[in-house]
Amino acid sequence: MTAALTTTSSFETAASAFETFELLRREPIESLSAELLEYRHKITGASHYHLAADNDENVFMVAFRTQPMDSSGVAHVLEHTALCGSKRFPIRDPFFSMIRRSLNTFMNAFTSSDWTAYPFASQNNADFFNLLSVYLDAAFFANIDPLDFAQEGIRIELEDGKPVYKGIVFNEMKGAMSSPTDQLYHQLAHTLYPTTTYHYNSGGDPADIPQLTHQKLVDFYHSHYHPSNAVFMTYGNLAPAVLQQKFEEQALAKFAQGERLESVPEQRYTIPQRVEANYAVDLAEDETLENRTHIVMSWLLPKTTDIKARFALRLVEGVLLEDSASPLRQYIETCGLGESPSPLLGLDDSNYEMSFLCGLQGSNPEQADAFEQGVLNVLEKIAGGDIQTAQVEAVLHQIELQQREIGGGSYPYGLQLLLNGLGSAIHGGDPLPVWQIEPLLAELRENLKDVNYLPNLVRQYLLDNQHRVRLVLNPDSEKTTRDLQREQDALDKIEAGLTAEDREKLDADAAALAERQAQVDDLSILPKVGLADIPVDLKIKTGETKTLQLGEHTAPLYRYASGTNGLYYNQVLIELPQALLNSKLLSIYVSLVGSVGAGDFDYLELQQQQTAVSGGVGLSSSLRTEI
Questions:
Q1: How far are the Cα atoms of 301, 447, 463, 626 from residue 269, in angstroms, in the given order?
Q2: What pTM value is reported for the model?
Q3: CA nearest neighbour of 7 among 120, 95, 101, 126
Q4: Active-site choice (38, 57, 79, 317)
């Protein structure tokens, strides 16, 4: 079983499968200049989605369905621990060691509510396959050493004879859960999803993480990290058969058919729920709890895999919230019941079942009834047909633009595409419509010929939907103190039960961990790139320069050809006066351009214009020295 490590930019020659895989379908995606090739591993049933594209930046990702049913953080701790050494690479930290031995353009791992993913990207083929060997071994043959669990997850150490909790994930989640937004989200999810995995904090609640044991972590690993429960996704110009050969030889050949976890729908409420909870806030001496309440409404919606409903609801979200002129956003921004819109705003399609959220921050609990009624009044108006055609067209434009745009922020473009499709693939749906939206857009436009289509969507999914939750999250300046006291009470109880032998073991465990952390590993067992793997020639874009006449002024115009899926990007460089550069208001002004009015447009008109014809207008300042 051998194959040359070659690349291909021809879709016609890229579709053949390795002998242990079968090709299920191939679909061109013209808007992305790509082709989807879907394969299945014959023995384990593992899925492999390959987006073939003429792009040297190849991306790999393997994702597992992970569905914890408690808030101990087991999936999150496992993500950390899996990267701490494996069968082929039994060193303390192969992941971070590879960062220094690699030409990667991205390396990371993610824990979501119900999946865990391990992605990387590289523009160098030798480097790509080096990283692939490390990632496959970490995912499928992790050592899950007890000392790594103690380091990454949770442990007890003695400080001045007193037990204390330590662990990277434990401390990380203490920091994360100090954020009001995180507390808001998890309090809301706890009620919106009463029985499924989303009821719990997959990252781990600091109050529950100490309940996690090494054995529970190992059991979760064996029950979840199996090829039958995995989705492989790749992007770029490497041949799928070559990738699959590596999957087979380095991982899949060691496995038989296993269990595939399935997502289950939530039990639906028959009446809307109203919930109050508290979040921790630290106050300065002159501060009060006034105007610090969050009020959020949320609805549970259809499955993410219902792509038609997903795009229809994306349209509803846009019509209601796209910009400050959108009716629901305008109400939230101008109702006077709070300071600003909630950070939880819009359609959340990351879980098995979607949700719609809208809310207010900087409010007070007595405003909750008025805010809820105001939101329902806006929805009633929309359901009654109070919708502008131009607004709907602008939202359709934004949906298409977001689909076409090549730009993943800190993510490589290929990884951005794979993550977009992962939600459908991991939940047993079809990711193709997420990448190939033209048919869905055409169907939406056809449906919109019925003037009642959009109003009916609002009524069906929001107004008549009884699985609705209103959360009033109030500030509590004593919560942090109470949480710390509960933690200390638990530690005091542990201390009271410690024997002399227990203390000796805790000291021995701490010494063993310190020794492991200080050990010098033999990094030569890890693959690395050498000078022979580095191309001699650099690929530098060359453009053309023209002269642009702007009234009485001329300016140089630099044009570059690039694959942008039909979009144009324009950047205008303007030299700023020294007085403006020295202004303390410059950074504020820069951040507001595109959001406030300009010229003859007020802020609503300007935002509407941008939504209708562009991806937005922004301004940034950059200080450069003279050449």
A1: 12, 30, 14, 65
A2: 0.89
A3: 126
A4: 79
